[in-house]
Amino acid sequence: MYKSDEKTSRFGLSAVFALALAGGWVGPVSAQTMEAALARAYSANPTLNAQRASVRATDENVPQAKAGYRPRITASADIGASITESGIPAFASTSPVHTNNVSRLGPRGAGVQIDQNIFDSGRTRSAVGQSESQVLGARATLRNTEQNVLLDAATSYMNVLRDTAILNLNRNNVEVLEEQLRQTRDRFQVGEVTRTDVAQAEARLSSARSQAILAESNLKTSVARFRQNVGTEPRSLAPGRPVERLLPKSLPAALNQALSNHPAIIASLHGVDAAELQVKVTEADLYPVVGVRGVVQQRYDTQFSGDNRFSASIVGTLTIPIYEGGQVYARTRQAKETAGQRRIEVDTQRDTVRAAVVSAWGGHEAAKAQIVAAQAQVEAASTALSGVREEAKVGQRTTLDVLNAQQELVSARSSLVVAQRDRVVASYAVLSAVGKLSAQSLKLKAEVYDARQHYEQVQGKLWGTQTPDGR
């Protein structure tokens, strides 16, 4: 009487264990792999590419700061026309008549001025150090963004696998309950069960169909997230596997690694360096500045038509601030408070990282334990369902007992799917929490982005508006 049910149940159970075998829904040989999805996200994710562009923009702070060591050269030119008319009355001169003089000139000239900083009380040196700290901080922020992107991509990958498996389980459950309802109606026709049994089977089938619709909606959402994080539609995803071989051996070891190497903490520390150097940059405005100025000029028609004048000078300059209304003092105090804020933020970031490590580690350990429990639950629920069905044949169990046992088996299978997904995602979360989730550690087949390359191309560049990539 229940042969069709048992066949479908065995099929569903084998599908779940195929998922459990490697932590993902098994696809064909040519399926898209987790590593391929992560490699694509690493290369093409717009959030990550935007952060890379931000690092390149930050690199340009270094040549801007180094400009304080270099001369500033300006050229100027002017041209004009002037008319001067003067009159001398007869009584004011030896001439018996009134005399008028008209002078028409075309004054023009050109010049070059060069200003060279000699000593600026350490302002340029501090500005260069600050810009270099900003570059290092931007690189650490990029590493943290890379981690977040890879973790999001791995999570999206496993969510698609999970929701695909759950959808298949729910569809399989609908097929089982449809067969259960058909058999219950047949038994009702011969008087073995009541109308209540039929109604219970119908209600359970309606509920299963509703769950299948919900599972399909969840899968569509996960597919959309996958497209957002990876950049392609998921097609025949291969099993996803945890990265436990890359994880620290214990929680204390994980905490030590995270507090020493996590890019978010490193970025905060560079932020402190940059803020402290900003104090020195601001204070330098209170101290003397020594420089040299050279000027070369050529002028024509300055006093009378046809004359020319060449001049050249070199002058040492000393500028000593006396009082600027208190603005520099206020900016210095402000910079000191900002530096204090950055130091506090380092402690906050350490606490955040520590909490993330403990949470991810606990989630990973819990997921492994849940897999064991879920596997035992599936085996027990499968055995119970077989027993309830056999007992129902001889009238010792009701239709409701069979329906409940079937529902428990579906729930157990779903729990196993979720636990498998959680184990994979949690392993990536631990790797991210300790600061080791990267294309290099995962050995992804993608060209590794080297932020130092652009820095080396621009940090000593003297002129030119074209970027190294030709824009």
Automatic annotation (TrEMBL):
It is found in: Cell outer membrane. InterPro entries: OMP_efflux, T1SS_OMP_TolC, TolC-like. Pfam families: OEP (PF02321). It comes from the Bacteria. Keywords: Cell outer membrane, Coiled coil, Membrane, Transmembrane, Transmembrane beta strand, Transport. The keyword Coiled coil applies. Its main location: membrane. Residues 167-218 form a coiled coil. Belongs to the outer membrane factor (OMF) (TC 1.B.17) family. This is Outer membrane protein. It comes from Bosea robiniae.
